[in-house]
Design goal:
Elements lengths: L8 H29 L2 H5 L7 H8 L3 H14 L3 E3 L4 E3 L2 H7 L9 H12 L1 H10 L11 H22 L6 H7 L2 E5 L5 H9 L4 E6 L2 H14 L5 E5 L10 E7 L8 H11 E12 L11 H19 L13 H10 L4 E7 L3 E7 L1
Parallel strand pairs: 3-4, 3-6, 4-5, 6-7
Antiparallel strand pairs: 1-2, 7-9, 8-9
Helix pairs in contact: 1-4, 1-6, 3-4, 6-8, 8-10
């Protein structure tokens, strides 16, 4: 008979406190999505103190629902409440994060992504039993838009300002006129940002998901850069049209079923002096290096999205979103690229300069 474990009451109490925080965060996700979709945060922009009735007048939504929503947002620290006037206010810092789509701090896309993951939980649960993969294209539609809106702020803050300048000689080529491929481009946020920054260069964005490519083409038209970007439906191992001066893969290498094969293909399409920019989720090389808040987010995404996506494809290497630089370097070396250097990093991103 197994001995009854001794319970440390203080540790139990601490864990239950963590549970309350986690439950509150999880319960907040759909409310942020609601606020985003209904334009509630945008209606509160400017910092005016508003009653629920005021917000109802601005949005056309029902006051009774807005009252509960505002109270929950105040309890979460997303808005401020003034008991003297019974008003709610969106502070400028939260406004930057919640009301402005073009802000580098914009966060509602992350909650849209999380909501999509929750919808697909039954499918992933079954894959735990069967071991089969679950393709990116099989997920709830909100995932595709949410992913673009989640990653785009990071690209806005870093891609042109720091990541590209961290690559040897690349900015000079882009300014003079380079040929660039963005593999696994999704809705094209990264491709469009580069095209806007470097008008003399031409770009090809590829993704196997047809719906995302259609969205990318529409986004390029809206941004006025469709004349310099071609978006194509193709996998990484089908990349063509080289030689390219620069190939980019943003947060997608670990999702591929055969990243080694993809690396070989990129190598074949690179110019002799070309550069491959690989941006991956920040991760250390050992599990214990990633047992932190950022790793918590990425391991969740890896379990629900990245690993199932890779397992749904040929080879199914399933690197996972926390592969780390050492494992990524092994994959790139096996694909024929001998020089791998960490050129930049952020709390969320590992940026690698890769050359033959």
């Amino acid at each position: 008979m197994a001995a009854t474990p001794t319970i440390d009451e203080q540790k139990l109490e601490q864990f239950m406190g963590q549970f309350v925080q986690d439950m509150g965060a999880a319960a907040t996700a759909p409310l942020v999505v609601i606020g985003d979709k209904l334009g509630l945060y945008k209606a509160m922009a400017g910092g005016d103190p508003l009653t629920p009735a005021d917000l109802a007048g601005r949005t056309g939504c029902r006051e009774r629902y807005l009252r509960e929503w505002l109270c929950q947002q105040a309890a979460s620290g997303y808005v401020e409440y003034d008991p003297a006037g019974g008003t709610f206010r969106l502070p400028p810092e939260q406004e930057l994060a919640l009301a402005h789509d073009d802000s580098p701090a914009f966060i509602p896309g992350a909650f849209q992504l999380i909501a999509a993951i929750v919808k697909d939980e039954p499918h992933i649960t079954e894959r735990f039993r069967s071991g089969e993969g679950f393709g990116w294209h099989e997920h709830d539609h909100d995932l595709f838009e949410g992913t673009e809106r989640f990653f785009r702020p990071g690209y806005l803050a870093n891609l042109v300002e720091s990541w590209l300048p961290s690559l040897e000689g690349v900015v000079e080529k882009l300014e003079a006129g380079a040929r660039v491929a963005d593999v696994g481009c999704g809705h094209g946020a990264s491709t469009i940002l580069m095209a806007q920054a470097y008008p003399r260069s031409t770009f090809v964005g590829t993704d196997y998901h047809e719906g995302s490519i259609e969205a990318a083409r529409r986004a390029a038209e809206r941004a006025g850069v469709a004349d310099r970007i071609t978006f194509e439906v193709s996998s990484a191992k089908e990349l063509s049209g080289g030689p390219y001066d620069l190939v980019c893969v943003f947060d997608a290498l670990h999702d591929m079923g055969d990243p080694v094969g993809a690396a070989r293909r990129v190598r074949s399409q690179l110019a002799d002096d070309g550069t491959w920019l690989v941006v991956e989720p920040m991760a250390g090389d050992a599990i214990e290096d990633n047992l932190n808040p950022v790793g918590r987010v990425f391991y969740a995404g890896s379990t629900m999205l990245c690993t199932p996506a890779s397992l749904s494809q040929e080879v199914g290497l399933a690197l996972g979103a926390q592969a780390g630089q050492q494992r990524l370097t092994e994959v790139l070396n096996e694909g024929g690229l001998s020089r791998v250097r960490r050129s930049a990093e952020t709390p969320f991103n590992l940026v690698l300069e890769v050359r033959p």
